[in-house]
Write a structure and sequence with these properties.
alpha+beta; Methylamine Dehydrogenase, Chain H; S9 family peptidase; Peptidase_S9_cat; Neuraminidase; 702 residues; Rossmann fold
Length: 702
């Protein structure tokens, strides 16, 4: 989940700043800017080089798992059997920004499909070229054969093996390609829109295809032996039909029908989603259940958390009916169907699977401690849940591989890595060890009382006890904004890097507080969908400001040396803090932030409502408070950003220049929103260290 692409109200033809020579305009610092000491560059490089794993997948019929490992910026795919020592099946050698993603193992685990290149968030956009190759690579589906050879199946994404492993299907724009697994695929249909996901029926006779057509989504069925190969569309509506799931016998498909409310829609009013069931033989569709008004009347779930059928005729689905995202079940044959929620209240789920024998529910949740995520196992026929992972790890992703259960785990000193749970014993195929000479501080959970009385959680990183205080301090604000930072490495690569940066800042002498402000995840619906957030008033900024005041009141913090840094929505909040409270926040680093939230087009609103919405968006924007901005800021942005338009930072640089506000700016030609090259993260973080040191006077007595 990413911040919406912000539409610019002012566009500029200013050229991007040179890659390695950012300009400090009208700098007014007490101490001259200095390069971060060489040891910081070595330390950061070593930490960012730690192996980080993502994209975990398992084979349906055997305990084989595969994942992508990024080590020193180079991505490769590793495979492990039952948690044994892994073997590398690719041989990439460059930190050139070429991503590997979309991993899919054949049911017997003998073949592996993956996507080389492209962008997992925007698979149908032009592929990125962060390494600025003279001829950019294409987004290509490749297959690792049983003998280790790698062949190209074709251009596209979302590879999926048929249940018997005979066929491989994938998509390219609105084209479906299918071919013999290990061979070259051919186009079997093309439709308007973009194919976003593929789902095989249990017998492999059909594919359910999710198609995004902008204003709505439709679901189509393709059958290999249907004569002309024409798709059969499920009964469509003026809505977003998504997440199809075949019943175990392949005769029915359940799916979600989701409608998007207008910005003016009252919270809790209206019902914006339902669960539909389609009978393949008759073509009949019926509504199984409609979310009632109140909590959970708008659909929300993390990516990948959808529908699943159980063997006893129940349908599993996520729902926030209690105010917390729980996994619930509907009995298909019941009329009317009434949901029964299975996972604990007061906690949220992040992922789930059914065990290989279909008798147990495997899920990850922050049950018992909202700042700590574990994997759990629970009998489907009733009975209490039991933890699968210990208290020393953070686990937000669970999958299965034959009879084995695999999770992606992190800890205070270890980035994301797979752990296989088989016969009750955890096995770690590849343990990422921290570089020698660096000691990770254990972040402390702290509670900050916001101005309106809300309890705000954060993680406090303290300098070593041997570092004399008081210290300069920093607030770190995450992006999303639907994210939750943890007192450990984060499973997302973007925030795994940010965690490293916060650790280095603390080791360097800063008190760092990472704040989980309202509109984030992990703390329930009322927190994530709090009144007045974002464009409706930026109420989350009150939590950020309260965090700054908390730091200022600490005896180990120098009150006038508090800075702030963050990226994406965190960049937006960094800019908002500097624009509104330069007397509290003395400097900041804004990575690819949003600076003008105005959206002139508001279909469905009256002229009066449009003016009110535009005014609210403007008042919620950093640009609206530019006259009060005094503190220096560092701006960093990749100029091929598809999440937040590069022009957002160009606009802010122009506004700051006109007001005489000191800033330093850097652009990465060819980089995306989340930088694809580790070298670019290292460069950006070293710029940030130098800038913050100069303006917050680290190492200088108060």
């Amino acid at each position: 989940m990413n911040p919406p692409r912000a539409r610019m109200t002012v566009r500029s033809s200013l050229l991007a700043a040179p890659l390695l020579a950012g300009t400090i305009l009208l700098a007014a610092t007490i101490f001259p800017a200095r390069a971060a000491p060489a040891e910081d560059g070595t330390r950061l490089a070593g930490l960012l080089a730690m192996p980080y794993a993502n994209g975990l997948t398992g084979a349906a019929g055997t305990p084989r798992i595969a994942w992508v490992e990024r080590r020193d910026g180079v991505r490769n795919i590793l495979v492990s059997d039952g948690g044994a020592a892994p073997r590398r099946v690719t041989a990439y050698t460059k930190d050139d920004g070429t991503d590997l993603w979309g991993l899919s193992l054949s049911p017997d685990g003998r073949m592996l499909a993956f996507v080389e290149g492209g962008d997992a968030e925007y698979p149908d956009d032009a592929p990125p070229n962060a390494g600025n190759a003279p001829i950019p690579g294409k987004q290509t589906v490749r297959v690792v054969l049983p003998d280790g050879r790698i062949v190209a199946a074709g251009e596209g994404h979302a590879p999926a093996f048929s249940p018997d492993g005979r066929l491989l299907a994938f998509a390219h724009g609105g084209t479906l390609l299918v071919g013999r697994a290990g061979g070259v695929a051919r186009a079997v249909l093309t439709t308007r829109g973009a194919i976003t996901a593929l789902h095989w029926s249990p017998d492999g006779a059909r594919l359910a295809i999710e198609i995004d057509r902008g204003s709505h989504d439709v679901i189509a069925l393709w059958q290999e032996k249907s004569g002309d190969g024409a798709p059969v569309f499920l009964p469509a509506a003026l809505a977003h039909d998504q997440m199809p799931a075949f019943s175990p016998d392949g005769r029915s498909i359940a799916f979600l029908r989701v409608r998007k409310p207008l910005p003016t829609a009252e919270r809790g009013k209206g019902s914006f989603w339902s669960i539909q069931v389609y009978d393949i033989a008759t073509g009949a569709e019926r509504t199984l259940w409609t979310a009632p008004e109140g909590a959970g009347s708008r659909f929300w779930a993390p990516e990948g958390v959808g529908l699943a059928w159980t063997g006893d005729g129940r349908l599993l689905f996520p729902w926030e009916g209690s105010g917390w995202l729980r996994l619930c079940a509907l009995t298909i044959a019941a009329a009317p169907a009434e949901p029964r929620c299975l996972t604990p209240d007061g906690a949220e789920i992040a992922s789930y699977r059914l065990s290989a024998d279909g008798t147990r529910l495997l899920y990850t949740a922050n049950a018992g401690d909202v700042d700590h995520w574990r994997a759990w196992s629970q009998p489907l026929d009733g009975g209490p849940a039991s933890p699968l992972t210990g208290e020393d790890a953070q686990v937000m992703d669970v999958t299965t591989a034959g009879p084995a259960v695999a999770v992606m785990a992190t800890s205070v000193d270890r980035p994301a890595h797979p752990v296989v749970l088989q016969n009750g014993a955890p096995r770690v195929p590849a343990a990422p060890l921290p570089p020698t000479g660096f000691t990770f501080t254990t972040p402390r959970i702290v509670h900050v009382r916001s101005e309106d009385g809300r309890d705000i959680h954060g993680q406090l990183f303290l300098p070593p006890a041997t570092t004399p205080g008081p210290h300069p301090a920093l607030v770190f604000v995450h992006g999303g904004p639907e994210r939750q930072m943890l007192p450990a490495f984060h499973p997302m690569g973007y925030y795994s890097n940010a965690y490293i940066m916060n650790q280095v800042l603390a080791a360097r002498g800063y008190v760092v507080l990472s704040v989980n402000y309202r509109s984030g995840t992990g703390y329930g619906l009322a927190f994530r969908d709090a009144p007045g957030i974002g464009r409706a008033g930026a109420s989350e900024y009150g939590d950020v400001r309260a965090t700054g005041l908390y730091l200022r009141a600490r005896p180990d913090v120098i009150p006038d040396r508090i800075g702030i840094w963050g990226g994406s929505w965190g960049g937006y909040l960094t800019a908002l803090a500097l624009a509104r409270d330069s007397s509290l926040f003395a400097a900041g680093a804004d990575f690819h932030g949003v600076h003008d939230l105005t959206e002139p087009d508001h279909p469905g609103l009256s002229p009066v409502e449009k003016r009110q919405a535009l005014e609210s968006e403007w008042r919620s924007s950093p640009a609206a408070d530019i006259a009060h901005w005094r503190a220096p800021v560092l701006l960093i942005h990749g100029d091929d950003d598809h999440n937040v338009e590069f022009e957002q930072s160009v606009l802010l640089a122009s506004l700051l220049t006109a007001r005489g506000v000191p800033f330093e700016d850097h652009a990465f030609p060819g980089e995306r929103h989340a930088f694809l090259r580790t070298q670019d993260w290292l460069t950006a973080y070293l710029w940030t260290l130098r800038f913050l040191d100069a303006h917050l006077q680290v190492g200088h007595a108060p």
